[in-house]
Design brief:
The complex is a heterodimer.
Chain A: H1 3-12, H2 22-42, H3 47-57, H4 61-71, H5 77-108, H6 129-147, H7 150-156, H8 158-185, H9 189-220, H10 228-231, H11 239-269, H12 272-277, H13 292-307, H14 309-337, H15 348-366, E1 374-376, E2 383-385, H16 386-389, E3 409-413, E4 416-420, E5 425-429, E6 439-442, E7 473-478, E8 489-492, E9 514-520, E10 523-539, E11 545-551, E12 556-562, H17 563-569
Antiparallel strand pairs in A: 1-12, 2-6, 3-4, 4-5, 7-8, 7-9, 9-10, 10-11, 11-12
Helix pairs in contact in A: 1-4, 2-3, 5-6, 5-8, 5-9, 6-11, 8-9, 9-11, 11-15, 13-14, 14-15
Chain B: H1 5-23, E1 26-27, H2 28-38, H3 50-59, E2 63-69, E3 75-81, H4 83-110
Antiparallel strand pairs in B: 1-3, 2-3
Helix pairs in contact in B: 1-2, 1-4
Chain lengths: 570, 111
């Protein structure tokens, strides 16, 4: 580099406000001088003179610097902060509004519901959608920032300003009304139990919204402006498309990362059993394992899982591993090249996916069932040995979501349990089970043709009119407030037989017992915060295994507890 | 002819956009030459100030840039006007013409 040019840069760079442009400016000005010098040399100037003239033609470096600082002026921090607050406040109610409109008003033909209401609960297969809707709803809000001159927009467009204010306030008011209910206006048990969740969720949502937008606005101010490669060559793009293309990955990435962080944090801080209870409600939208990526993976592997669970587990594990490796590679490449002139923005999306993969890995190991084993009913006939699933055994539960709501009865025989659902009968052989900890599911080939009359020990009625509970089983029950005083506990001990109770919806008239927790000979084998219907129970002939069938809102679970070990300990 | 900063402030972007629109993609030095040739050196801009203008236009999405090898064999950053850049140029030209007509009337009235 020539001496005059060095002097020029020395004078130009110290006061440059946007230092991220310094390399690029230096590079382009050097090229400019090089071109001009070549032309002057051809015109007969000597090299030194040509260079000096070229640099001189650039003008006063202070003027260039001032011109640059004016052109690339940053908005004030206060301006950014106010925009951030505005958009954050705008985005959160939109999230709730869209979800509420979709799942309550449209599908249930009722008024708008807020999270925390019982009616807001969604079907098992639908609970992934509120998140997508929420993210989609938030995007237009964030797009407002890409206009970049939001303050001017609000100042100059008075009419639109007024209209938008109403639109902004409307969802706020609708949500707020129901949030009051959530805060304790109605002391119904469900609401009061959801209060901490609701409050936490709203606080986190606001915080997360504000942080997202603040972060994004900072990036908007310059960090992602350097993404030029590839994207900006396309002159056919409209301004909107260009902006969208430029913003989408970063926005989704920022949202996703924060979303993972918050939901993972919530899940780790909360009792797993409590989360399980709200599995079908709006809280599920906050859970990391219910997020979009899992949905995509699950759907894509569903067919495989049904065919061969072992292959499904391996495929799921390999896919996650590949995703993680790819993300690590992209991030490491960025770190390696970050000092180069051609700057790129941090690969947020890959960082988010990586954090999601890590979250799945961490959560899968922390979500061990409280008792030995939990198996969804429809898969009770499938077992996969952990040994065969290798390092991916922990992913078994992520692939096993095909719940059913059959009514059925169970009984034990000399080597296992007989299970009768509304549509089929199965036999689960216990001789194959070494330890509940060694299996993640029950293998199909262990289902034997049903030959003996069913049942042998307990009376079986597929419609649960009656059945016999094993001796030694104790069901603790907290009755619903609708029937008794709030908080009153009723203990049902040693229910030896419920045979003969009429089929009815009323607990009082003898429907199957609802249990908060179940003990067998003094040892707790099952516990949940709220009562679930104990549909059936049976103990194996050697009294080692206890099979419980419990019904959640729209899911039935089979719990297999290794009670023999406990009893021996006793 | 040197114009005042105030007068040149809005015009510089317009001139750069027009140059890019007329001559297609160009790198910095080419643009300076194009502008000088087109205007017969009426606009004597300090060449160094061209780049901040280009960066601002790029940040608004009115131009895009891409590094390529120039015919000279050296790597240069080429700037291209975008669709929205063309749209903005057309709008501003219309505005500018109206402004000129109004100024002309106002000044001739006052004279």
């Amino acid at each position: 580099m020539s001496r005059p040019l060095e002097t020029f840069f020395d004078a130009l760079e110290p006061g440059l406000m946007r230092t991220e442009y310094a390399d690029r400016l230096r590079e382009e000005i050097a090229a400019h001088v090089e071109d001009k010098t070549s032309v002057l040399l051809l015109s007969g100037f000597k090299e030194e003179e040509a260079e000096a003239r070229s640099v001189q033609s650039l003008g006063d470096p202070r003027n260039v610097r001032n011109s640059f600082n004016r052109a690339m002026k940053l908005r004030s921090p206060l301006h950014c902060f106010l925009e951030t607050v505005f958009v954050a406040v705008l985005s959160v109610p939109l999230y709730f509004l869209c979800a509420a409109l979709l799942f309550s008003s449209l599908m249930m033909a009722s008024s708008i519901f807020a999270p925390g209401q019982e009616d807001f609960g969604v079907e098992m297969l639908w609970h992934i959608l509120p998140q997508l809707v929420g993210i989609l709803a938030a995007l237009p809000c964030f797009y407002l920032l890409t206009i970049g001159r939001l303050a001017e927009y609000w100042d100059t467009r008075k009419t639109r300003n007024a209209c938008l204010t109403v639109l902004v306030m409307l969802p706020m008011m609708l949500v707020f009304r129901h949030f009051l209910t959530l805060l304790g206006m109605d002391d119904h048990e469900v609401h009061s139990s959801l209060l901490p969740f609701g409050t936490l969720a709203l606080v986190l949502s606001f915080g997360y919204g504000a942080a997202s937008v603040w972060w994004s606005s900072r990036m908007h101010e310059g960090w992602i402006r350097e993404t030029a490669t590839g994207m900006k060559q396309d002159t056919s793009l409209s301004r909107f498309a260009l902006r969208a293309k430029e913003w989408m990955p970063t926005m989704l990435g920022a949202l996703f990362l924060l979303y993972v962080a918050v939901t993972t944090g919530v899940q780790w801080m909360t009792d797993q059993r409590l989360l399980q209870k709200y599995d079908t409600g709006w809280v599920s939208a906050l859970l990391a394992p219910r997020m979009t990526l899992e949905g995509v993976l699950h759907v894509s592997l569903l067919g495989l899982n049904d065919t061969n669970p072992l292959i499904g587990i391996w495929a799921f594990g390999i896919l996650l591993t590949l995703l993680g490796v790819y993300c690590l590679y992209v991030i490491s490449e960025f770190m390696r090249r970050r000092k180069r002139t051609e700057r790129r923005h941090f690969p947020w999306l890959q960082a988010c996916i990586l954090s999601y993969v890590i979250a799945l890995l961490c959560l899968s190991s922390t979500q061990a069932p409280v008792i030995g084993w939990e198996v969804p009913v429809s898969n009770v006939s499938q077992r996969v040995e952990k040994r065969l699933a290798g390092p991916f055994a922990r992913f078994g539960k992520y692939l096993d979501h095909s719940f059913s709501t059959f009514t059925y009865g169970v009984a034990s025989d000399s080597d296992g349990f007989l299970i009768q659902t509304a549509s089929e009968r199965k036999q689960l052989r216990l001789s194959h089970i070494v330890s509940t900890g060694a299996y993640s599911l029950v293998r199909e080939k262990d289902v034997q043709p049903f030959t003996s009359p069913f049942p042998q020990l307990g009376e079986i009625n597929p419609f649960m009119a009656s059945y016999t509970l094993p001796t030694g089983l104790t069901c603790y029950h907290r009755k619903l407030e609708a029937f008794t005083q709030p908080g009153m506990e009723i203990e049902v001990r040693n229910v030896s037989s419920l045979t003969g109770y009429p089929v009815t919806d009323s607990y009082e008239q003898g429907a199957p017992p609802e249990c908060n927790f179940v003990t067998y000979r003094g040892k707790t084998v099952y516990t949940m915060p709220d009562p679930y219907v104990l549909k059936a129970a049976a103990v194996s002939s050697d009294e080692r295994w206890l099979l419980l069938v419990l019904s959640a809102t729209n899911t039935d679970f089979v719990y297999l507890a290794d009670v023999g070990k406990n009893l021996n300990d006793t | 002819m040197p114009f005042s900063k105030e007068l040149m402030k809005g015009a510089a972007e317009l001139i750069v956009l027009q140059a890019l629109c007329d001559h297609g993609e160009s790198y910095g030095y080419q643009l300076v030459q194009t502008i000088a040739d087109t205007n017969n050196n009426i606009f004597e801009m300090q060449e160094g100030t061209l780049y901040p203008i280009l960066y601002r236009l790029e940040s608004k999405g009115l131009v895009t840039s891409q590094k390529r090898t120039a015919p000279s064999g050296k790597e240069r950053r080429y700037y291209t006007i975008t669709k929205s850049g063309k749209k903005v140029l057309a709008e501003r030209l219309g505005e500018f013409q109206s402004f000129m007509r109004a100024m002309k009337n106002a000044l001739s009235l006052s004279v």
